[in-house]
Give the backbone structure.
Amino acid sequence: MVQNKEGTDVKRRGRPRAYDPAAALAQARDAFWRHGYSGTSLDEISAATGMNRPSLSAAFGDKRAIYLAALRDYWVAKFATMDRALDAERLQDALLGVYDASLSLYFTEADGARGCFVVGTAVTESVDDHEIREIAKAGFNTLDAKFADRFRLAQHAGEIAREADVEALALLATATLHTLAVRSRAGTPCEELRRLARKAVAMICR
Amino acid sequence: MVQNKEGTDVKRRGRPRAYDPAAALAQARDAFWRHGYSGTSLDEISAATGMNRPSLSAAFGDKRAIYLAALRDYWVAKFATMDRALDAERLQDALLGVYDASLSLYFTEADGARGCFVVGTAVTESVDDHEIREIAKAGFNTLDAKFADRFRLAQHAGEIAREADVEALALLATATLHTLAVRSRAGTPCEELRRLARKAVAMICR
DNA sequence: TTTATTTTGTACCATTTCGCATAAAATCCT
DNA sequence: AGGATTTTATGCGAAATGGTACAAAATAAA
């Protein structure tokens, strides 16, 4: 059933859509995720979503607009799962929760190792595309901020030293996420990266 | 003058080349570096190198072969500059030297912020291209190994604790390099990244 | 000087890619 | 039932892309 942005059902006038916009965008995102922005053709997106080209165009706009929508969506989902993981009681569990949740996103049954969508595809386009670059950069800064907040919390809870540099800790935490993103796409096995994450958490929280 | 791989001049039979193969490959690499593998056309490479298409084909092969040659070259150069930086007396200087040398490669006068060639372009192709993936992964493993060696040296010199986990330290050192690579291409200013590197070194060597 | 060899430069071809025009289909409103 | 509205489906066309054929040019060897 078609819904508006409040989630309530809406009576549309003409022929009903044959697709779910959110699901279609997720399929398009997966295609970009696998092949990169430049490496993905509209024909592939059309095949992945099951939508024909004019429907894609009407729903999302041109290729770049589809990608930008997928990119914004990715950050929203990423931040949501991150917040959930950071909610853990102990700092170590919170950090490891973020890394485990990320890894389960970086490895899939269907596509195998694909890494982080932003690191694997948006960063590549960031030299030529100003808007993609800004969205990527803002997202990374948000990661830093969320980690920093969590370290501050741990600091007040006495889990880490009162004189610890929470900003520096946050940078290392994001750096760990970045290395997981890069290495998973470059073929390092998931189990090895899980061990890497554990070691990194131990180093950061020492 | 044309040279063979030993560097000695060679008398070739027919019409002499109008280009220097090494310089041309560097130009092609810069084009790939900026736009990514899929985002770079042979016309752009032709323009960047000043070579016409048949000459490119004769010298390096097809588009993918040009890219692979550039990729292998990049690692060779990267490892060489890294070895030089790691030669520094004090551990902190060695690490910071690696990061500073990397940043000066990640930012250019001509193209601005472009990040690391491997992280910015090869990682993207790594899902679909087995050979690119293996070269990227092997390179990252070499980075880990070089950092680990340097930490072991520092350990023997008494700069870090005897019970320190040098492998874990190396992972964090490479993670820092990865975050510099990602963030520089995503538009974080060079000065900010230099501060990030300093903080990371302080955290790692604490 | 002539011949053999290698590279260059122009042009071309087949394919892919992107976007859109147009008509048919499916629904709502009167 | 009939018109209005929205989406779907087929297919087209211009441009870009990767690769190569072929003749002219430049050099070394004979």
